[in-house]
Each structure stands twice: as structure tokens, then as C-alpha cells.
Design brief:
The structure is a single chain. The protein has about 220 residues and is mainly alpha-helical. The protein has a domain at about 1-40: Homeodomain-like (Arc Repressor Mutant, subunit A). About 75% of the residues lie in helices and about 0% in strands. The chain has helices spanning about 1-10, 20-25, 30-35, 40-60, 65-80, 85-90, 95-115, 120-145, 150-165, 170-175, 185-220.
Length: about 220
């Protein structure tokens, strides 16, 4: 049932998933489906959970905590890019099991890095919001382009041309980067953000260790 739901969602998005369509795919009656699951929302959560489980499983073996955070973030970015409906599903059910699994995996790695206990939640929340927010927005942009039949190169070229035409006195930075817009890599940009997060986490850990050392030194005086 979950596999069939994923296939329907991949083919036509969230609107295409109905109990009637699922029953037709499974060659069974809708009543048999209602026996296992109550509504469409639960079905989408189950489909999302199956994907998240597979993504996490593929990112759990080997590497440092930072490597595992980077691997999970990138795998989720790719999953959201491949399946635009997934970002919407996770955003609409923030306390559901798929999101809980992601939080658990990120939390374990953040803890393994040595982030102070009082900072663990804020660090994990920031990472989660970045991964799902940026990944979901990228997927939404791609879906919009598909629906409007926009070609990426042409669309980005037009944006680049508009930016290049701006007055450099008013928009010096934006005008200067305009030539880079057509060739930018969304995936690479996303990973740069993750690396900035990891660098910030490392600095926070170092500051905490320094502050702790100072406190300990005062106690011994």
C-alpha cells in the first residue's frame, strides 16, 4: 500500500493520491484500504516515513558525526528534489514520525560532536529548518518551473540579464554576481550552507570549552 502510494505521488503529486486511485492501483476495494488506514493524510505520512527511513539508513554507516550530518542533509535535499510532494508533506506534519526520525538522527550526531547540552535543541532545530526549508523551496521552484514549462537555462539567463542591467552604484554586489547566476549549482550552494553550519557548531563547541576552562580555573584559585 505504501509503495503504491509513493508511486502515485511520484507520478502526479499529492492531488493524484486518492483512495480510489490507490484501490485501482492495488486492484482492491477502497474498503480494504480503510481497514488499514483512516485518511489520506495518514497515508502521505506513511509514504514520507518510508522514504525518510531509507534515506537515513543509507547515511548511517561510517564517517564522523559531521560527515553523517552532511550526508543526511544532502540525501534529503536530493529526495526533496526528486519528490516535490515530500517537502510539502513534511512541512504539513512537523510532529509526525518522518520528522521525528530526522531530528533523532541529527540530534545524535550533534551530541556526538560535543555540542553543550543546553545548546543541542537550538542547533538541531536550526539544522532541521535549513535542510527542510531550503530543500523544500528548491523542490518547489523546480515544480513551478515544470508546471510553467520553464527551461532552467533560459529562465536563469533572463534573471542574469535583469541583474546585469541594474545600476552598479545602487546594486554593486548583485550586479557583480549576475554573470554567475546561469551556472550556479543549487546542490553545491546547499552544501555550502551545511558546511557553514558545521563550522559554526565547531566554533560554538570551542567557545564553550574555553569558557568552561576559565570557570574551572577560577574555582581552583
Amino acid at each position: 500500500m505504501v509503495d503504491a502510494s509513493i508511486a502515485i505521488l511520484d507520478e502526479g503529486g499529492e492531488r493524484s493520491l486518492t483512495f480510489q486511485a490507490l484501490a485501482k492501483r492495488l486492484t482492491t476495494g477502497a474498503g480494504a484500504i480503510y481497514w488499514h488506514i483512516e485518511n489520506k493524510s495518514d497515508l502521505i505520512v506513511a509514504a514520507s516515513d518510508a522514504i525518510v527511513v531509507s534515506v537515513i539508513a543509507a547515511c548511517s554507516a561510517g564517517g564522523s558525526p559531521a560527515d553523517k550530518i552532511r550526508a543526511l542533509a544532502l540525501a534529503l535535499f536530493d529526495a526533496l528534489d526528486e519528490r516535490p510532494w515530500l517537502g510539502s508533506a513534511l512541512a504539513q506534519a512537523p510532529g509526525s514520525m518522518p520528522t521525528i526520525r530526522i531530528v533523532e538522527h541529527l540530534g545524535r550526531q550533534v551530541r556526538a560532536l560535543g555540542v553543550p547540552g543546553e545548546d543541542e535543541w537550538t542547533v538541531v532545530a536550526a539544522l532541521l529548518n535549513y535542510v527542510l526549508g531550503v530543500g523544500g523551496q528548491n523542490a518547489a521552484n523546480a515544480e513551478m518551473a515544470r508546471m510553467q514549462h520553464l527551461e532552467r537555462d533560459k529562465f536563469l539567463g533572463e534573471i542574469s540579464a535583469r541583474l546585469s542591467a541594474l545600476d552598479p552604484k545602487d546594486f554593486p554586489f548583485v550586479q557583480s554576481i549576475a554573470p554567475k547566476v546561469p551556472d550556479h549549482d543549487d546542490r553545491a550552494d546547499f552544501l555550502t550552507g551545511i558546511d557553514l553550519f558545521l563550522d559554526g557548531i565547531a566554533r560554538r563547541i570551542a567557545r564553550s570549552a574555553t569558557a568552561s576552562g576559565r570557570t574551572s580555573g577560577k574555582e581552583h584559585q
